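Hi, here's the filled form for the chain we discussed.

Project: internal
Contact: R.S.
Residues: 360
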Amino acid sequence: MRGNVLVVDADYPHRTSSTKGGSATIRSLFLAALFNALPGREVELDGLLHEHGVLGSQVSNPYERLPLHRYVSLVESAAMKFARPFLGLEMGVKFGLADLGPFHALLTSSGDLRDALATFSRFQSRWQTQTLFSVERLADATSYSYRIDDPAIWPRRQDAEFTIAGLMTLVKQLTTAKWSPVEVHFEHSVANREKHLRNFFRAPVLGSQPSNRLVILNEDLDRPFSRSDRSGDDRLKTILETHLLHLMPPDPVIRKSVAKRTAEIIARRLGQSSIDCNVVASDLKMSVRSLRRRLVEEGTSFRRVLQETRQARAEAMLEDTEVPLAAAAKVLGYSDTATFSRAFKQWTGAAPRHYGRKEL
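And the returned structure, exactly as it came back:
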């Protein structure tokens, strides 16, 4: 049973390159986590930054925008270079409230954990663009989901584990060091990693899921923070939020084609909810007829955009040979493995079971 969902717009082969990832960006303040997790490696890290096209001026300004694909690729490369398969988790432990600068006071002035995470979500799209950050409330728990929209930015295992581990660190600092989530999900496979991840999060960990997710008990979210005087905190929170919203304006609006916007909506909904022309047209605030006409004018169709988006996500997922076909089929919205396999072979000429093992 699904609850109410609020979307806030938010040793395997290495595919991510400087030519992939479009215009998505991330603030350079998150690079602090990488340096904190690798003390004494500054010279080698400087070399990696240069290799991935990250300038020194971008590192020194915490609010500078970096291309998201370069950042993700940089972290994956660092994990391999320094033989740290769980580098993302190490970064998450090292990245806490203090690293968020003025956001530290903003979050700690919240009334409870749910309020703090709602504030976090409001700034997500200003910290990192073209990224899903959604909140789904059920009867006993609420899930906080994170996923980069662009399937070309892959692999992104370290980024996913850093984000969820970092979110857990923030929750612990706001509540208690003994806190643990109900469940943790990752979009990548956790085969041969599950035990370590389970011990780290002290909760069940599932892999090959539609998105990266931290599930938190509602009673933990709604327990008031221990404050003797809330009025001062509420006033401070309002002032800080106003200043920070002006300090970090959203990315400039770039006019996108209808096909591009359609693909983004499909990518965001894959594995989350049903996808058809009616749903996408509603999201775009246009009629189905208008959507189909605009797509034809741009030389494509809804069916083709859906297929291309699924194909891109499928190819990215199957680069990781440990992702079960059944899991991939479910994420991509296919009713069974056989249907997905037939579609994949039509796209690529290769059976999905062999795709991840081909020469890249």
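Let me know if anything looks off before we file it.
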